[in-house]
Amino acid sequence: MDTNFVVAQIFGVLGVIASVCSMQFKKRKQIFIALLLLNLFSALNFVFLGSMASAYVCFFAVFEMLINYLFERKKKRVLLVVVLIYVAVNIALGAISFTGPLDVIPIVCALIFCATLLTKNEQNIRWLMLLNQSLWLVFDLTVGAYFFAVSNVLTIISTAIALYRFSKKKK
Description:
With 171 residues, the chain is mainly alpha-helical. Helix 1 packs antiparallel against helix 2, helix 3 runs antiparallel to helix 4 and helix 6 packs antiparallel against helix 7. The termini are far apart.
Protein backbone atom coordinates (compact mmCIF):
# COMPACT_ATOMS: atom_id res chain seq x y z
CA MET A 1 0.00 0.00 0.00
CA ASP A 2 1.23 3.49 -0.87
CA THR A 3 2.69 5.39 2.13
CA ASN A 4 1.09 8.69 1.06
CA PHE A 5 -2.32 7.02 0.99
CA VAL A 6 -1.83 5.63 4.52
CA VAL A 7 -0.66 8.99 5.89
CA ALA A 8 -3.63 10.68 4.18
CA GLN A 9 -6.01 8.27 5.88
CA ILE A 10 -4.42 8.97 9.30
CA PHE A 11 -5.17 12.66 8.81
CA GLY A 12 -8.60 11.54 7.71
CA VAL A 13 -9.22 9.81 11.05
CA LEU A 14 -8.15 12.95 12.91
CA GLY A 15 -10.45 14.97 10.68
CA VAL A 16 -13.37 12.64 11.47
CA ILE A 17 -12.91 13.30 15.17
CA ALA A 18 -12.70 17.09 14.74
CA SER A 19 -15.58 17.18 12.29
CA VAL A 20 -18.06 15.12 14.28
CA CYS A 21 -17.25 16.95 17.50
CA SER A 22 -17.51 20.40 15.90
CA MET A 23 -21.28 20.45 15.48
CA GLN A 24 -21.99 19.23 19.00
CA PHE A 25 -20.35 22.19 20.67
CA LYS A 26 -22.73 24.84 21.90
CA LYS A 27 -20.60 27.97 21.54
CA ARG A 28 -19.46 29.47 18.26
CA LYS A 29 -15.83 29.72 19.47
CA GLN A 30 -15.71 26.01 20.30
CA ILE A 31 -17.26 25.11 16.94
CA PHE A 32 -14.66 27.20 15.12
CA ILE A 33 -11.69 25.70 16.98
CA ALA A 34 -12.84 22.23 15.93
CA LEU A 35 -13.41 23.46 12.35
CA LEU A 36 -9.91 24.95 12.29
CA LEU A 37 -8.50 21.53 13.19
CA LEU A 38 -10.78 19.87 10.64
CA ASN A 39 -9.51 22.15 7.87
CA LEU A 40 -5.88 21.60 8.87
CA PHE A 41 -6.30 17.81 8.87
CA SER A 42 -8.28 18.02 5.60
CA ALA A 43 -5.55 20.05 3.93
CA LEU A 44 -2.88 17.57 4.97
CA ASN A 45 -5.08 14.67 3.87
CA PHE A 46 -5.49 16.19 0.41
CA VAL A 47 -1.76 16.98 0.11
CA PHE A 48 -0.95 13.31 0.64
CA LEU A 49 -3.67 12.30 -1.83
CA GLY A 50 -2.27 14.72 -4.42
CA SER A 51 -5.46 16.80 -4.61
CA MET A 52 -3.86 20.22 -4.41
CA ALA A 53 -6.95 22.28 -5.35
CA SER A 54 -8.74 21.08 -2.24
CA ALA A 55 -5.57 21.30 -0.11
CA TYR A 56 -5.12 24.98 -0.98
CA VAL A 57 -8.75 25.71 -0.15
CA CYS A 58 -8.44 23.98 3.23
CA PHE A 59 -5.13 25.66 4.13
CA PHE A 60 -6.66 29.03 3.28
CA ALA A 61 -9.69 28.18 5.46
CA VAL A 62 -7.28 27.76 8.40
CA PHE A 63 -5.85 31.21 7.61
CA GLU A 64 -9.38 32.68 7.36
CA MET A 65 -10.30 31.27 10.74
CA LEU A 66 -7.19 32.72 12.35
CA ILE A 67 -7.93 36.18 10.90
CA ASN A 68 -11.55 35.96 12.06
CA TYR A 69 -10.38 34.91 15.50
CA LEU A 70 -8.24 38.06 15.72
CA PHE A 71 -11.24 40.22 14.84
CA GLU A 72 -13.44 38.41 17.37
CA ARG A 73 -10.82 38.66 20.07
CA LYS A 74 -10.89 42.43 19.67
CA LYS A 75 -14.71 42.24 19.62
CA LYS A 76 -14.82 43.69 16.12
CA ARG A 77 -16.85 42.60 13.14
CA VAL A 78 -14.89 41.30 10.14
CA LEU A 79 -14.59 44.07 7.58
CA LEU A 80 -16.34 43.70 4.24
CA VAL A 81 -13.03 44.21 2.43
CA VAL A 82 -11.59 41.22 4.32
CA VAL A 83 -14.55 39.08 3.26
CA LEU A 84 -14.10 40.18 -0.35
CA ILE A 85 -10.42 39.23 -0.10
CA TYR A 86 -11.43 35.79 1.23
CA VAL A 87 -13.77 35.29 -1.71
CA ALA A 88 -11.22 36.52 -4.27
CA VAL A 89 -8.40 34.37 -2.86
CA ASN A 90 -10.60 31.27 -2.74
CA ILE A 91 -11.64 31.76 -6.36
CA ALA A 92 -8.04 32.46 -7.38
CA LEU A 93 -6.75 29.36 -5.57
CA GLY A 94 -9.41 27.30 -7.30
CA ALA A 95 -8.57 28.78 -10.70
CA ILE A 96 -4.81 28.30 -10.27
CA SER A 97 -5.12 24.66 -9.24
CA PHE A 98 -8.08 23.81 -11.50
CA THR A 99 -7.64 20.52 -13.34
CA GLY A 100 -11.24 19.61 -14.16
CA PRO A 101 -14.91 20.09 -13.33
CA LEU A 102 -14.57 18.24 -10.02
CA ASP A 103 -12.34 21.04 -8.72
CA VAL A 104 -15.34 23.38 -8.67
CA ILE A 105 -16.65 21.61 -5.55
CA PRO A 106 -13.82 22.75 -3.22
CA ILE A 107 -14.26 26.31 -4.50
CA VAL A 108 -17.99 26.27 -3.77
CA CYS A 109 -17.30 24.71 -0.37
CA ALA A 110 -14.76 27.44 0.35
CA LEU A 111 -17.32 30.13 -0.43
CA ILE A 112 -19.89 28.44 1.80
CA PHE A 113 -17.22 28.29 4.49
CA CYS A 114 -16.67 32.06 4.13
CA ALA A 115 -20.36 32.51 4.88
CA THR A 116 -20.03 30.15 7.85
CA LEU A 117 -17.23 32.25 9.33
CA LEU A 118 -19.36 35.39 9.15
CA THR A 119 -22.46 33.83 10.67
CA LYS A 120 -23.09 34.69 14.31
CA ASN A 121 -25.97 32.27 14.92
CA GLU A 122 -24.80 28.74 15.76
CA GLN A 123 -27.85 27.12 14.15
CA ASN A 124 -27.16 28.93 10.88
CA ILE A 125 -23.57 27.72 11.09
CA ARG A 126 -24.88 24.19 11.38
CA TRP A 127 -27.18 24.61 8.32
CA LEU A 128 -24.28 25.94 6.23
CA MET A 129 -22.06 23.09 7.41
CA LEU A 130 -24.76 20.59 6.41
CA LEU A 131 -24.63 21.94 2.85
CA ASN A 132 -20.83 22.15 2.92
CA GLN A 133 -20.40 18.58 4.15
CA SER A 134 -22.85 17.23 1.57
CA LEU A 135 -20.78 18.74 -1.24
CA TRP A 136 -17.51 17.54 0.29
CA LEU A 137 -18.98 14.02 0.49
CA VAL A 138 -19.33 13.89 -3.29
CA PHE A 139 -15.80 15.25 -3.74
CA ASP A 140 -14.18 12.99 -1.13
CA LEU A 141 -15.71 9.83 -2.58
CA THR A 142 -14.48 10.82 -6.02
CA VAL A 143 -10.83 11.54 -5.03
CA GLY A 144 -10.46 8.61 -2.64
CA ALA A 145 -10.49 10.52 0.65
CA TYR A 146 -12.45 7.69 2.23
CA PHE A 147 -12.03 8.62 5.88
CA PHE A 148 -13.19 12.12 5.04
CA ALA A 149 -16.16 10.64 3.21
CA VAL A 150 -16.98 8.76 6.42
CA SER A 151 -16.36 12.02 8.27
CA ASN A 152 -18.79 13.82 5.95
CA VAL A 153 -21.52 11.26 6.60
CA LEU A 154 -20.91 11.29 10.36
CA THR A 155 -20.80 15.10 10.40
CA ILE A 156 -24.04 15.29 8.43
CA ILE A 157 -25.65 12.98 11.00
CA SER A 158 -24.06 14.89 13.90
CA THR A 159 -25.21 18.20 12.43
CA ALA A 160 -28.76 16.95 11.99
CA ILE A 161 -28.76 15.78 15.62
CA ALA A 162 -27.34 19.13 16.78
CA LEU A 163 -29.90 21.06 14.72
CA TYR A 164 -32.67 19.08 16.37
CA ARG A 165 -31.12 19.16 19.83
CA PHE A 166 -30.44 22.88 19.94
CA SER A 167 -33.70 23.90 18.24
CA LYS A 168 -35.62 21.75 20.72
CA LYS A 169 -34.02 23.58 23.66
CA LYS A 170 -35.20 26.95 22.31
CA LYS A 171 -38.86 25.88 22.21
